[in-house]
Amino acid sequence: MGVYENVKKALQDVVAPELQALRGEIKRLDGKVDSLRNEVLSEIKRLDGKMDSGYEKLDGKIDAGYKGLDGKMDSLHSEVLSEIKRLDGKMDSGYKRLDEKITSGYKSLDEKMDSGFKRLDERIDSLDSRLEVAINIRERLARVEAKLAISS
After folding, report:
1. Is residue 22 within 8 Å of residue 130, measured between CB atoms?
2. What's the structural domain count of the chain?
3. Which of 41, 76, 99, 116 would disulfide-bridge 72, Cβ 3.0–4.6 Å?
4. Residue-wise pLDDT tens digits, 67-112
5. Residue 135 CA from chain centroid, whole number
6. Cβ–Cβ under 8 Å, residues 148 and 5
7. How far is 13 from 76, CA to CA, in rounded Å?
8. Long-range Cβ contact pairs of 50-53 (< 8 A, separation 24 or more)
9. Residue ranges making up the domain that contains 122
């Protein structure tokens, strides 16, 4: 076998499996990104559901409270005002708690996504470096092939 064949075989034995491994790693990372995206979407849907449920419960309580108070309005005017103030406090507290939970959930999701994207960026940077090495080897091989073709 000639030098060309030896170099070609060595590159095929070394670079080709590494490229296959890189392809597999990229597919695996794509799967992880998709999985993370699905987790984020699922978490957002779950939080939306909780928000909707909380709003429905609050709306239900408010509606029930106002309906019950309407009948007593004439005779219990001062009690109604007191009850409205109490319900407003509960609503504010409920909204604050709900807002804190939502903010906390989104922050957690943002942190998870940032962490996942950072790991992905690092892996892509690593793959870019390996790809540059493979391209350099290919270019060198092409130059060697050209020199061999000229000298033959």
Report:
1. yes
2. 1
3. 76
4. 765 666 666 677 767 878 888 988 889 889 888 888 888 888 888 8
5. 32
6. no
7. 90
8. 50/101, 51/98, 51/102
9. 3-151
